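Checklist before submission:
- one chain only
- standard amino acids only
- sequence pasted in full

Submission:
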Amino acid sequence: MTVTCHDGTRYGDRYRLATTLTDHRAYPAQALIALYHERWEHESAYLALRHTLLAGRVLRSGDPQGLRQEMWALLALYQALRIAITDAVATVPGTDPDRASYQIAVQAAQATVTQARGVITTSPCLAGAIGRAVLAGLHPPRRPRVCARRVKSPLSRWNKHPPGKPRTSQPITKITVVVRPGNQPAATHRPRSLTQTAGP
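Returned file contents:
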């Protein structure tokens, strides 16, 4: 994989894709590689739960049963909001769900509950009040970019700057991926596993 940046910098490495999906016709390597770039999506869920819904507060319950109840409530609310977002985005074919703002969905849901407006409607609309607010505030399409790594701890195993990677954030102009079957000659150095990289 080779990344070309806006300033002309090119860097990359060899990776070995290990998967249990052995049918290469149903699961081509290029498709699995593309999915790998979505690997950080689960991090946004943790961020949404901790910082957006809880605003950084800790759970209030002082016993295991109460904590379990609070967690289930938070997860149910998060899932309901994500469903509202994806339903709304589905009404505009070709729109990337990543452009939808979770913060706007939360604010619209709060306004709907506190103002009790649009809770019950006679006209069926897949987007709904939350979805309409989300669609009105879509983010621009995601721009491919490489970000300079910031190391907070000197003890981090990622404390060394990757060879060839720009030291400043740069837009990416091109990503070149060459897929070689597993029966190709071994690389001169040991390829890194896709699950062992530090970040985008």
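Reviewer check: Strands lie at 2-5, 10-12, 15-16, 145-146, 170-176, 192-193.
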